[in-house]
Design a protein that fits this description.
It is built from 23 helices and 24 strands. It is an alpha/beta fold. The strands form 5 sheets. Strands 14-15-13-16-17-12-18 form a 7-stranded parallel beta sheet, with helices on both faces. Strands 19-24-23-20-22-21 form a 6-stranded parallel beta sheet, with helices on both faces. The protein has a 5-stranded mixed barrel with strand order 3-6-7-9-8. The longest helix has 26 residues, at 216-241. The chain starts with a helix and ends in a 9-residue tail after the last helix.
Length: 684
């Protein structure tokens, strides 16, 4: 990749005019990074037409309109008789209709009067509301003089955004990036220019059709992304077979497995035993293990992972257990440490929270080899972390880590084994193309004593009835998860926010907790820990999807998923897996709203009919499309930027064939692998 272009793509967004450190931090939260490259890979979700119209009366309420208006008079806002009234600017359109522009912040009256002077014509663009016969535009997004109409786009691209980021901010950053890009592309090859031309097309769509999966530029970008991924897989596969990467098999030094088996309070399932035999066989070879364990929710993957760690400890080597969040790392540590203590293995935890002397002590123990099993987050591959003999890496929820992150941890050892865990089964039709560099073990049985979760769907109209039925269950000691898809009420959504539902449930129950992604992390972890604590008084935990993966509360026997039709099948299956983790009967209640589509009802029916994660994954693949996801992430899948699993199945095969035919990636393919983080900087 040309150095000028490389440097430009890695430029921090804070150096883009008008952004700065605070807004760049917001971009980091929303788009998953703060480089120019991260912005370019943040795909728009749709478009908003803003063509000029003459008469507001011809428009539909809720529609975004752009209209030329004559400002007639102003009614200042303020507080009257204890009620807050907005500032109203009364206008006429060309058809003589009345349009009222409203602003609810009266402190800016002077500003609005300057933008909309009485007697002047102005072009106004915003969402139209209608009360009776009155046409109202609240806080228009654009106000321009007629000669500046070109400043209002006839087609406005809409980006998935977040708190503190407006569509105008996205547009301003986009325009600056693409204005600077042509100079950086001078001297690049045809493939590179074609790639960035396709990116330009999706950031400047001419219609909504340009953002559909089968649009030319979208399909082109999807293929490039898949080629990057498949090339990384091919390189990884070849590297495993390379004689230079063979290792000396570690001899057994200690007898720990019999002791470990004696500590287990249950018999392993047949599926667990099969997976372990496959893992042990890999560990006994001179080729590093690369194995993916796919296990349905509650199938016992953690015990399989710990068994592999104990087998590695028999040779005196160390295991690093990587989890995506502090909460999940703490939960794994709480499970693993008592079992390790019983068999005499030192188990520790290392996260970003560890500071000062406590951290130094843990690092010394790792460096000396005393710590045989360490659980942690990204801190496990920090620069100052050294292992005496890292023999096994276990990665939980592996799809949450980029290849470069996995490679950073692998570089801490000498050809260590790698065991990846996935809590959401991947459809068999895709597993080979998604994880072609890995051998796959499947755990498709649940531990003995687990009862099937009874799943039912009910309409929101029966909310009060549901609350009444929860009372005797809670009085008998049940704990309840209540999941909502939003944190706060939104103007364009009728979905109930977690904060609103929390306030309502407090009217009926004594101890209701609340967790969501916008909370301070320590506060959120504290609430989760309290809910999970034995003997906790917390009856209900209202949450967003932050509880989707990892949190383990055996006492929780009921989960209510509100607006369940807004979630994908994989996410619903993951959420349901938060209950049914003990030996008591558990229940999943799917609350659905009035605007339930046929596909939405089918998803709920699938959940009610089966608990088989693999059957659900196949249904998910057949049903899902970008438009159906409605912004809700599907857990357990590789998070592609442009690939649609349903629409691009042929591209999977094409990219896989192209990658297999390459004896080594050329410069362009290496650039793709860097762009999409599907491979490290390969030197071979």
């Amino acid at each position: 990749m040309k150095k000028d272009l490389f440097d430009f793509l890695n430029t921090d967004l804070q150096f883009v005019k008008g952004v700065g450190p605070k807004v760049a931090a917001r971009f980091d939260d929303v788009i998953g990074g703060r480089r120019v490259l991260d912005f370019l890979l943040h795909r728009p979700s749709g478009v908003r037409p803003r063509e000029l119209t003459d008469a507001a009366a011809d428009a539909t309420p809720g529609q975004t309109i752009t209209i030329e208006l004559l400002v007639k008079s102003v009614r200042p806002g303020g507080v009257f008789r204890g009620r807050r009234a907005p500032t109203q600017i009364i206008c006429n359109d060309h058809a003589g209709g009345v349009v009222v522009i409203q602003f609810f912040n009266s402190n800016f009256l002077e500003y609005w009067l300057k933008k909309l002077p009485v007697g002047a014509w102005r072009i106004v663009s915003g969402k139209l509301d209608r009360t009776g016969t009155r046409n109202i535009i609240n806080h228009p997004e654009f106000i321009e003089e007629p000669e500046n109409i070109s400043k209002i786009p006839s087609i406005q691209v809409i980006y998935p955004a977040g708190e503190g980021l407006t569509q105008k901010t996205f547009t301003a950053v986009r325009d600056q990036i693409f204005a600077a890009l042509p100079d950086k592309l001078i001297g690049t090859d045809d493939n590179t220019r074609e790639f960035f031309e396709a990116l330009h097309d999706i950031h400047f769509p001419r219609s909504a059709d340009d953002l559909q999966p089968n649009a030319t530029s979208m399909a082109k970008l999807a293929y490039y992304e898949l080629l990057a991924h498949q090339s990384a897989i091919a390189i990884s596969r070849r590297a495993r077979l390379d004689a230079r990467n063979r290792r000396t098999v570690r001899p057994k030094k200690y007898d720990l497995m019999d002791r470990f088996a004696a500590t287990l309070p249950f018999e392993l399932t047949g599926a667990q035993s099969r997976a372990l035999n496959e893992i042990y066989s890999d560990m006994a070879r001179d080729m590093p293990m690369m194995r993916l364990v796919q296990g349905d929710v509650g199938s016992g993957k953690t015990i399989v992972a710990l068994s592999a760690a104990v087998r590695m400890a028999e040779s005196g080597a160390q295991t690093a257990f990587l989890a995506p969040t502090d909460t999940l790392a703490q939960q794994h540590y709480a499970k693993l440490k008592p079992m390790c203590d019983k068999i005499g293995i030192v188990c520790d935890i290392l996260t970003g929270r560890d500071k000062g002397a406590a951290r130094r002590e843990k690092l010394i123990s790792l460096r000396s080899g005393r710590t045989r099993v360490v659980v942690g987050t990204h801190a496990l591959f920090s620069e100052d972390v050294e292992y005496k003999d890292l023999g096994l890496i276990i990665i939980d929820e592996q799809h949450r880590f980029g290849v470069s992150q996995r490679e950073a941890l692998r570089a801490k050892g000498a050809h260590p084994d790698m065991l990846a865990l996935s809590a959401t089964p991947i459809p068999r039709t895709l597993s080979m193309t998604m994880y072609g560099d890995m051998d796959v073990s499947i755990i498709n049985e649940k531990p003995a004593g687990r009862l099937p979760i009874k799943t039912s769907k009910i309409p929101m109209a029966r909310y009060n009835e549901l609350v009444s039925h929860l009372r005797p269950q809670i009085d008998a000691g049940a704990q309840v998860f209540w999941v909502c898809p939003l944190v706060e009420e939104g103007d364009e959504s009728n979905m109930t926010a977690a904060a609103t539902r929390h306030a309502d449930l407090q009217k009926y129950f004594e101890n209701v907790g609340l967790v969501h992604g916008q909370m301070d992390k320590k506060a959120r972890d504290a609430v989760m820990a309290e809910f999970a604590r034995d003997g906790s008084d917390m009856q209900i935990l209202v949450a967003t999807t932050v509880i989707e993966v990892g949190i383990d509360v055996p006492h929780a026997t009921i989960i209510v998923i509100e607006n369940a039709e807004r979630f994908g099948l994989a996410a619903l299956h993951q959420l349901r897996g938060r209950v049914g983790r003990g030996n008591k009967q558990s229940y999943c209640i799917l609350l659905f709203g009035r605007n339930l589509s046929e596909d939405g009802m089918r998803r709920l029916d699938v959940l009610c009919e089966t608990e088989d994660g693999f059957a659900i994954a196949e249904q998910d693949l057949m049903m899902r499309g970008v438009g159906e996801l409605m912004g809700t992430r599907q857990s357990g899948w590789i998070q592609y930027h442009f690939v649609d699993y349903r629409m691009h199945r042929d591209l999977f095969r094409l990219a896989s064939s192209a990658a297999m035919e390459m004896s080594a990636p050329d410069g362009w393919t290496r650039d793709l692998m860097y762009i999409f983080d599907r491979g490290d900087t390969i030197s071979a």
